[in-house]
Protein: IFNL3 protein
Amino acid sequence: MLHLGFIPLLAVLTAAGFGAAFPQHTLRRGCSLSKYKFLVPHEMKAMQKMKQHFEDIMLLSDRKCNARLFHRKWNPAELSVPDRMMLVEAELDLVTAMLGLPADPSFTETRQQPLAFLSQAREDLRGCMATGTPSHQPSGKLRHWLQKLQTAKKTETTGCLEASAIIHIFQVLDDLRCTAFQEQCI
Structure:
């Protein structure tokens, strides 16, 4: 009889131990960003093609840009999961807004697949934001970067913001990947 009472107690203690082993600020239950852990080759090719096309267009223009939004002295892997989610959401907001701007017809066609993919990633991320942290206050690092982003949106030209977002598209994708893993990425 004592043996039967011990098994449920062992199960409860084991479950409690596992609960402490996993991060408390995780994605909403039943939600998965796992499809962003490893991007399929055709999505990567579409991103690369878009970036290359944009860089070719930039060579023909005279865009001067001082925005250094993606030059950070810290690595997003240093942030908590809620901070990484906020960072990636802000990055995806910027990138999708810039890709949604009117553009040269040839570039409009090139950016359609990446824009659709990134828009879906942003919506998936928003749907997965942890319900337990809606009032999450960003860390000092992230808060500073978010302020820098807001300042850039007010002071930089649209062309500058567009260039910065597209040139650093793979950094945004890497930040999304690390957020999908919910663990430290380097």
